[in-house]
């Protein structure tokens, strides 16, 4: 059975045929060649595959593609570009918030959703917002600092 | 190994699809449990019936002094609901401790109950609030007390052709209080080693009625009725709460697995039930004074 | 078909000349990372690419009676199945050439690969891997290194389960213990640890002209992998190019060859690019782990707190193959006495084969295990002589000019300054209980 999937990806309408057992993660990475969204566990545990679905962070590895039908999806490619970085992206660079960088796309999207909903979070709220994004390299400290810096408008 | 995928617009349509495909069909709500189980090869459904686009199933509202939570209300929408926060704060308390942001945005309360795992975090609060669940099948709708819902690990009163449509919670009178506590290996994104909820109604320093529920210590979430009896009609004292906690721990039937040993779980029951009772009593006293 | 341009090397020399030390510098690839444009192993693709999937052993120890890929090969979309028979030189390893690219006569741990399937899609490869028939004859297995050292234990390899034995001797440890006034003896154990780098192992092999091969891999040591791939596939080294992609975490877990020879050989056989990504389950089950250690510490000390003798026995659970086991054990033995002045030292290390997951390199390379043991032990020894653990360490800590049990003479030792600074930062009061 093919499912005719239609959704908005980073503001642009996408139409593609999928098998209903494909996840949004698979559709993004393999059908649409958008590899910015990462894959770490395919079980909802690591958060590397986080995207925004109608503005909310979700793990795209647990989202069957038909669930995205008619909805808005934002991936790391839609957050900012090298020419026009989102303040969080700039802050992650400035604060050295990433080492291997593999958790970065998901982490940045979780952080972006937090700041949209709650522009001035406490440190605890920041840590709760990224609790579903594992980072094996950094120990989180600089990630939290970078997000808080953006919330205080301190990023160049 | 793919499956058919249906997106019905009404509960009626969903039930028809389920009746047609029988055992081979599965309801999918948030999919956070189901997709993992399919991927692990634990189940191989031939058809999925996606109930998330049935508008009335996600409604949260107050109806005739009962709080109505639709089965596909997400954990996030429960957390954001002023009604739930106000009228059943213990439900919000449990919701806050589920998974992490991404999971709460997708997981539904109905999926949590229907997955019928002993550790389901939404079960203990609903058990102590004596919620009811509404189920629709080919022969119509029926309502069950929640403690008749769970029948075994991954087994519930739901038949393959039925949909859990909503949960109803009686609005709480003054002098009542409830609490939920969970122990996991970290504070987010964990399945409980043990979870517990307590509810009390007090009047003038006496516990008129108490309810205790435990998760992850038996084949289903359970009520600790023996411990509840110990508390009934008694004056509130610290040693009474401790005695009840110990009794609850003895009612538990935990097993040893990779999350914890039988002994550890039993000890956790005692500690968590005491903490839940203490908090429930404090909250009840506060509400009595309001 | 695929044009590969070599990226310009980063201007390391200029940066150093500007004086990079002591300044905040952002990573040269930070911009690519935050925009999702960095390409990791899992992101690599090539036109016409096949997907590979491994067939893995469900047994910890078994004889392979028969492998029959016929059914898998008959599935539409399956391009190739390889087994041990297809590997020209099926042995590799750093210190011990005991590891197989694909299991031949026996499997020695759960998850050991016996065959690899390449197919048009990941879905077909996964289904086909289940259809490769492997007949096993289970053998008794051993999971405890102490049991494995006993006579009559199941033999993981011919030639006994003790894969390596190391000694370090300094002074006369018997005399040292006879001079001691108090002797403290303790055992410490550490568990398996999986690296759990967020990016799984992933590689893409692309066949080139004249039997050459380019392999993009999420790997920490591309040159080591290139030479190992060349060796096991019996190819000239000049025919194998391994390109390290951005690596989504390694921590030692991507310090050696894993899936590269499989995708490499499949690419050569099919003439098409072949990609493979491990699942998280495969990461836990079939890739290397930190070795669990059992460490017996015995220390002689005088009542005034002077250390006089220490003997250490380390038993490292090697798992099914040596990999970095002997190297990590050597490093552990060198560090095992701890950063303390001890005149008489005896250290003995055993590397023991079991049917557990293969131990490899991981952050600290054997030292975290002994570090945990000797620091816990130091607290116990300090307590036994009634000294606070800090005073005890300051008194016995290594200084400039001290000689290690290996004979190395140390220069520029900053142990005392480091400890002092740590105490300041921690607000430690002398005499406080740790
Ligand atoms: C990373 C991660 C973290 C998790 N953390 C927690 C946690 O902290 N606490 C916890 O309790 N659980 C946790 N879970 C388990 C799971 O996410 C929850 O149980 C969740 O509430 C399931 O809801 P869902 O809507 O996603 O269910 P689904 O996956 O859609 O469905 C689950 C099961 O219920 C059936 N079903 C769903 N809705 C209905 C309905 N209305 N009528 C009939 N049948 C139905 C489905 O057929 C399926 O068998 C976690 C899971 C993951 C992957
Ligand atoms: S890949 Fe989706 S949560 Fe890990
Ligand atoms: S930077 Fe490597 S996982 Fe976060």
Short description:
The complex is a heterotrimer of chains A (156), B (290) and C (434). Chain B is an alpha+beta fold and 290 residues long.
Could you describe the 3D structure shown?
Chain A is of the alpha+beta class. Chain A folds into 2 domains: 3-78, Beta-grasp domain (Ubiquitin-like (UB roll), Roll); 87-151, DNA polymerase, domain 1 (Orthogonal Bundle), CATH 1.10.150.120. Chain A is built from 6 helices and 5 strands; from the N terminus they run E-E-H-E-E-E-H-H-H-H-H. Chain A has a 5-stranded mixed β-sheet with strand order 2-1-5-3-4, sandwiched between helices. Chain A is elongated, with a radius of gyration of 15 Å. The model of chain A has no long low-confidence stretch (mean pLDDT 97). Chain B has 290 residues and is of the alpha+beta class. In chain B, helix 9 (225-231) runs antiparallel to helix 10 and helix 10 (238-251) crosses helix 11 (262-289). The longest helix of chain B has 28 residues, at 262-289. Chain B is globular and about 60 Å long. The model of chain B has no long low-confidence stretch (mean pLDDT 96). Chain C is α+β, with helices and mostly antiparallel strands and 434 residues long. In chain C, 27% of the residues lie in helices and 25% in strands. In chain C, strands 3-5-1-13-10-11-12 form a 7-stranded mixed β-sheet, sandwiched between helices. Mean pLDDT of chain C is 94; it is low at 1-15. Classes of the chains: A alpha+beta (156), B alpha+beta (290), C alpha+beta (434). The complex binds flavin-adenine dinucleotide (FAD) and FE2/S2 (inorganic) cluster (2 copies). One FE2/S2 (inorganic) cluster (FES) is lined by residues 39-42, 44-49, 59, 61 of chain A.
């Amino acid at each position: 059975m093919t499912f005719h999937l239609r959704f908005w990806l980073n503001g642009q309408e996408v139409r593609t045929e999928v098998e209903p057992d494909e996840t949004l993660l698979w559709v993004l990475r393999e059908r649409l060649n958008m590899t910015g969204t990462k894959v770490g566990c395919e079980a909802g545990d690591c958060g590397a595959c986080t995207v925004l679905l109608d503005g909310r962070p979700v793990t795209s590895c647990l989202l069957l593609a038909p669930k995205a039908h008619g909805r808005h999806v934002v991936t790391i490619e839609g957050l900012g570009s090298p020419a026009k970085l989102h303040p969080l992206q700039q802050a992650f660079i400035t604060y050295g918030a990433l080492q291997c960088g593999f958790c970065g796309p998901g982490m940045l999207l979780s952080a972006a959703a937090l700041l949209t909903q709650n522009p001035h979070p406490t440190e605890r709220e920041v840590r709760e917002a990224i609790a579903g994004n594992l980072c094996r390299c950094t120990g989180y400290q600089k990630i939290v600092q970078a997000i808080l810096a953006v919330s205080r408008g301190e990023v160049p | 190994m793919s499956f058919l995928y249906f997106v019905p617009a009404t509960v009626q349509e969903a039930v028809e699809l389920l009746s047609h495909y029988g055992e081979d069909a599965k309801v999918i709500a948030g999919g956070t449990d189901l997709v993992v189980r399919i991927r692990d090869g634990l189940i191989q459904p031939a058809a999925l019936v996606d109930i998330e686009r049935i508008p009335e199933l996600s409604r949260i509202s107050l109806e005739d002094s009962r709080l109505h939570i639709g089965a596909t209300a997400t954990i996030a929408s429960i957390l954001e609901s002023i009604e739930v926060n106000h009228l059943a704060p213990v439900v919000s308390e449990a919701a806050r401790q589920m998974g992490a942001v991404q999971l709460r945005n997708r997981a539904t309360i109905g999926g949590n109950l229907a997955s019928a795992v002993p550790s389901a975090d939404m079960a203990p609060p609903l058990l102590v609030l004596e919620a009811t669940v509404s189920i629709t099948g080919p022969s119509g709708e029926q309502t069950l007390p929640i403690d008749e819902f769970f029948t075994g690990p991954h087994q519930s009163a739901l038949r393959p052709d039925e949909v859990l449509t909503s949960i109803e919670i009686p609005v709480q009178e003054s002098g009542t209080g409830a609490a939920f506590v969970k122990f996991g290996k970290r504070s987010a994104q964990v399945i409980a080693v043990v979870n517990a909820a307590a509810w009390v109604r007090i009047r003038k320093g006496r516990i008129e009625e108490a309810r205790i529920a435990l998760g992850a210590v038996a084949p289903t979430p359970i009520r600790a009725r023996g411990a509840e009896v110990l508390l009934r009609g008694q004056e509130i004292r610290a040693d009474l709460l401790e005695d009840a906690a110990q009794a609850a721990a003895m009612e538990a039937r935990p097993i040893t697995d990779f999350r914890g040993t039988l002994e550890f779980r039993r000890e956790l029951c005692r500690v968590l039930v005491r903490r839940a009772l203490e908090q429930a009593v404090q909250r009840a006293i506060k509400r009595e004074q309001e | 078909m695929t044009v590969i341009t070599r990226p310009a090397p980063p201007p390391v020399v200029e940066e150093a000349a500007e004086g990079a030390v002591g300044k905040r510098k952002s990573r040269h690839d930070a911009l690519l990372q935050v925009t999702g444009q960095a390409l990791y192993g899992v992101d690599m693709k090539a036109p016409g690419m096949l997907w590979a999937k491994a067939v893995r052993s469900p047994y910890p120890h078994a004889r392979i009676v028969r492998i029959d890929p016929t059914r898998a090969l008959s599935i539409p979309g399956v391009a190739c199945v390889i087994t041990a028979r297809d590997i020209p030189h099926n042995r590799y390893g750093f210190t011990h050439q005991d590891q197989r690219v694909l299991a031949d006569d026996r499997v020695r741990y759960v998850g050991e690969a016996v065959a690899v399937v390449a197919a048009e899609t990941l879905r077909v490869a996964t289904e086909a891997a289940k259809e490769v028939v492997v007949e096993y004859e289970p053998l008794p297995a051993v999971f405890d290194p102490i049991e494995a050292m006993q006579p009559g234990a199941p033999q993981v390899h011919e030639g006994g389960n003790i894969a390596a034995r190391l000694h370090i001797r300094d002074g006369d440890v018997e005399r040292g213990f006879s001079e001691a006034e108090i002797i403290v003896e303790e055992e410490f154990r550490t568990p398996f640890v999986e690296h759990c780098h967020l990016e799984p192992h992933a590689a893409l092999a692309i066949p080139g002209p004249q039997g050459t091969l380019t392999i993009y891999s999420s790997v920490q040591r591309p040159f080591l992998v290139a030479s190992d791939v060349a060796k096991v596939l019996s190819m000239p080294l000049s025919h194998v190019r391994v390109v390290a992609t951005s690596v989504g975490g390694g921590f030692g877990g991507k310090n050696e060859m894993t899936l590269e020879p499989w995708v490499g050989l499949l690419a050569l056989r099919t003439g098409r690019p072949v990609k493979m990504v491990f699942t998280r389950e495969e990461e836990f089950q079939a890739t290397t782990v930190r070795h669990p250690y059992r460490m017996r510490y015995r220390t002689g000390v005088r009542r005034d707190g002077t250390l006089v003798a220490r003997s250490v026995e380390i038993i490292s659970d090697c798992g099914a193959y040596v990999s970095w086991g002997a190297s990590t054990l050597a490093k552990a033995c060198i560090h095992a006495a701890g950063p303390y002045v001890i005149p008489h030292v005896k250290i003995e290390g055993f590397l023991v084969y079991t049917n557990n997951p293969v131990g490899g390199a991981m952050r600290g390379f054997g030292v975290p295990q002994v570090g945990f043991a000797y620091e816990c032990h130091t607290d116990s020894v300090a307590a036994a002589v009634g000294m606070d653990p800090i005073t005890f360490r300051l008194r016995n800590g290594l200084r400039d000019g001290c000689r290690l049990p290996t004979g190395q003479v140390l220069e520029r030792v900053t142990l005392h300054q480091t400890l002092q600074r740590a105490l300041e930062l921690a607000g430690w009061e002398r005499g406080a209980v740790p």
